[in-house]
Amino acid sequence: MKIPRIVVVGSVNADMVVKSRRLPAPGETVIGGQFVMVPGGKGANQAVAARRLGAEVTLVAKVGQDPLGDEAVDNYRREGILTDLIYRDPVAATGVALILVDAAGENLISVASGANAALTPADVDRAADRIRAADAVLVQLEIPLETVIHTARLAAADGVSVILDPAPAAPLPDGLLADTTYLTPNEHEAECLTGIAVVDESTARRAATQLLAAGARHVIITLGAKGAWLASADGQRLIASHPVAAVDTTAAGDAFNGGLAWALGRGLPIELAVAQACAVGALSATRLGAQPSLPTADQLEHFLGLPR
What we know:
The protein has 308 residues and is of the alpha/beta class. The chain has a single domain, classed as Ribokinase (UDP-N-acetylmuramoyl-L-alanine:D-glutamate ligase), CATH 3.40.1190.20. 36% of the residues lie in helices and 23% in strands. A hairpin with a 4-residue loop joins strand 11 and strand 12. Helix 1 (42-53) crosses helix 9 (252-265) and helix 9 runs antiparallel to helix 10. The longest helix is centred in the C-terminal third of the chain and has 15 residues, at 270-284.
């Protein structure tokens, strides 16, 4: 089966993670336990997810001219990601995320965007040839919206599939959805985009129908442990996930999106691609930390019980 070529345009952060028994309420201090500092950022997480599964991955991003930026570029180079389009900003610092994780794997996250906010459409233009040659382009909302719009328009104009993870949740212009091949909100993001609280299959269907009408060709609403709701002009259905004991769900959505890009880039049918992406997300939730949790293809095969 072919090796997919994926371009990820998105954020790079240093994740500082504290694991504790429960998450604090506003104004409350909770004594935590384990602390780790690991590479993160939605764009970088998705790039690593796709690369570990076997895709050829280019990461288009921006970091600071600081030690965290040096460490990030070195890390992604070691992962085998093409890093020549990770730019260094002379003023802004590398992005940082502060993450609290409770005993059930739920989390609270606050992000200082830093150099991520300085990634521009002009930076994307410098990656145009790589984008045109890709099987899929992945974008998220931790970079400026104008850069996301420009990336999707550039890719769509050349017939390249655009996977848009609308996270963190924010309203989107209709023109962006028209350039989106696969829209992958979670329940909260789907509600932000439609005003419909997604709490079951019926509300997922209503939200997905609205998003299809707004221009997205495929809508995949991730539903955590339940799986993902897949909707297109051909119909709608639930793709079940795999039951796991969650340790940290921080990168589960990023694992799903990276897995989806990898599976679609290999030419898998959409339902099978979503099923494999659900498995990648579930497996990632069984480990602490964003990028440390992302599985390899061998680990995914073992998890699914597939023959070697």
